[in-house]
């Protein structure tokens, strides 16, 4: 198959999943064309069968904000025609789905039928997509797509609840590549971070308000008052200065290390004892899954799709949003009991295996093949009608 993938190139969950999906498809021999305004963060090296197409956005004095959606639609048309693509898979509803559907209409005028598959990831539905100015376009994009998938049952329910959806949405979960994400022997790194054998707590995100990273610091403060511990914060974003302020207020700055944006997340996870994810909205929780694949139990909220990933009392613990004191208590329950922590580590790995890349890849491939088959049938029917 020749597959186009439209994505945001950032470190966010949708961009990560889309990039890893494309790389996995390329390894299977499919031709994959990534389309975005800059190179995807995890497309760090040359891979056979993968092509990257940058969307050029012309800048004119007339535009206060250049029309990216129009430029993207034009680029999709160009790439489909020049590479004879079989389908277009867009990740994140805004503005990728509507841009792809505009391209689909343009191509149809030229006698080219291009199936559009839309994958919903979370805030494009639960937050941004529900803005009054976006809602009609998001609804239309979902209903006009040839197939729609969502990364959790929770997100399917949210979409059906908040939008006038007239078509089925298939749940295909996020996945993990175990060739990359696994616990690695990195004792020298652990000794550097925790020279006195402190417990290592970790959090990774884009440091937006919705991630409630301030709660991570408050949870850690309670933990470190009871046991020797260090906190690693991976990522960056608009809440960084506020997080640093909270660290100063709680006098824990000397125990917190800011690692910034990192590519080799698995290297860091391999030395950690516990992952904290206190988000107020999380359609799936890909970062939690990555931690679990590295045998790190998870303390999280029960928001969105997190209960589908983190099993309460088995792979970690769930709490209500904002209840950082309970999260800290649950964390200490694990960290103070070596035997229990080891059991939860093993459980986390076993749960992560249910989201293995190869299993999920087959589900996406089945959708692709179905859409291509339907498209061929429609083309044949059209040809017969002309005769």
Which descriptors apply to this entry?
single chain; 387 residues; alpha/beta; Rossmann fold; 7-stranded parallel β-sheet; 6-stranded parallel β-sheet; 13 strands; 46% helix; 16% strand
Structure, described:
The chain is an alpha/beta fold and 387 residues long. It has two domains: 204 residues, Rossmann fold (3-Layer(aba) Sandwich), CATH 3.40.50.2000; 167 residues, 3-Layer(aba) Sandwich (Rossmann fold). Helices cover 46% and strands 16% of the residues. The strands form two sheets. The chain has a seven-stranded parallel β-sheet with strand order 3-2-1-4-5-6-7, sandwiched between helices. The protein has a six-stranded parallel β-sheet with strand order 10-9-8-11-12-13, with helices on both faces. Helix 3 crosses helix 5, helix 8 runs parallel beside helix 9 and helix 11 packs across helix 14. The protein is elongated, with a radius of gyration of 22 Å.
The CATH class of the largest domain is identified as Alpha Beta
Name the CATH superfamily assignment of the largest domain.
Glycogen Phosphorylase B
Number of helical regions: 15
**What structural category characterises the helix and strand content?**
alpha/beta
CATH topology of the largest domain: Rossmann fold
The total strand number stands at 13
Poorly predicted tracts of residues: none
